[in-house]
Amino acid sequence: MKTLSLAWSYLWSRPLGAVLNLLLLSLGLASITFLLLVSEQLSKAFERDLQGIDVVVGAKGSPMQLILSGVFHIDVPPGNVPLKAVQELTKHPMVAQVIPISLGDSLHSFRIVGTSTDYITHYQAQLAQGQLWTQPMQVVLGATAARKLGLTMGNTFVGTHGLGEGGHAHGDSVYTVVGILAPSGSVLDRLILTDTASVWKVHEDYTAVDDEDRQIMIEEREVTMALVRYKSPLAAVSFPRYINTSTEMQAAAPALEITRLLSMLGLGTDVLRAFAGVLLLTAGLSVFIALWSAVRERRGDLALLRMLGAPPRKVAALLLLEALWLGLLAAILGVLAGQGMTAALAWLLQLDNSLLIGGMAWPSGLWLVPAVALGVSLVAAILPALGAYRVSVLELLQGK
């Protein structure tokens, strides 16, 4: 314990240098923490929300846009497709399930999604309160949406046109909350779910049309897209080609598009990783220089310790422990700073409403951060410690 205390005192005997080394090392570790947290949480979000969805069918346009809007609800959809075309998909021999998705309205940036109850069953979500809808204009709230909107059972509200703030309010179409889902960790947590017929009811105006026009309007109904599950993995070879060449719709494979997305993000993460490496290398060199200088400056102290009976290994241990103190402090500060950076990113981009990024987390890979901190500190201290270990008492007393 005395050795630990003495090493701590030595570390702060030069406070300016200690703070500089601590800052450099902490910044590098914070960058690594940030990368680990974001990549881990993104991977989990993608894996969780894509589970069981083999292909997304929607309007022609960007396949990536179709996946981001239909699965993760973080983009606008490319358009709508005829309801009849989506219904035909259920008759395809390779298709096991089709879940319709209708978008267009929101409430304070939380999306109102018209769908079927199969969408809730798909993610194995459970009700915390109430029941599922039984008729149009009834909604079931995701856990996050209910909490942030402050809505409870029986509350009513009107949606606004568009998927963001500032849209026109549909004042004549009132939704009623009949159920609230328990937290599931899936995309459902951030959605307001209702029957597909609710979306049609909000946007269709029957007051100014006769029965014939009303029938035409019903026959021309549209949905935004459909989530499709195959009966067999072999369908992945031919079904998307069939949709893209034989229909007016497009099929986007989530696994393929997410792989493309991650590859595009890879350049940015590589740059940040290189930046973190430069910071750690600079911090290591700074620690090495500081400890090497400390050996020269503390010759009198080291000589006194040796004369009082301290063996060479204890003198070397002082320098190693000083470096370990620095590494431990940097690890704590780096992890906290990385967690803060992740939370700040989620707050700035509102990712906590889309991909659930930003909450405090400790994935298994995060243990790499304290390991790196202690490793860099120890490597930087080895040569100074060996120098202190090998110097004789006579040389120390002579100041050589």
UniProtKB/TrEMBL annotation:
Boundaries of every ABC3 transporter permease C-terminal domain copy: 274-391
Residue ranges of the TM segments: 20-38, 271-295, 315-337, 368-391
MacB-like periplasmic core domain: residues covered: 19-218
Location, primary (coarse class): membrane
Cell location: Cell membrane
Its membrane topology: Multi-pass membrane protein
Keyword annotations from UniProtKB, A to Z: Cell membrane, Membrane, Transmembrane, Transmembrane helix
Origin: domain of life: Bacteria
Pfam families xref list: FtsX, MacB_PCD
Family per similarity comment: Belongs to the ABC-4 integral membrane protein family.
Protein name: Multidrug ABC transporter substrate-binding protein
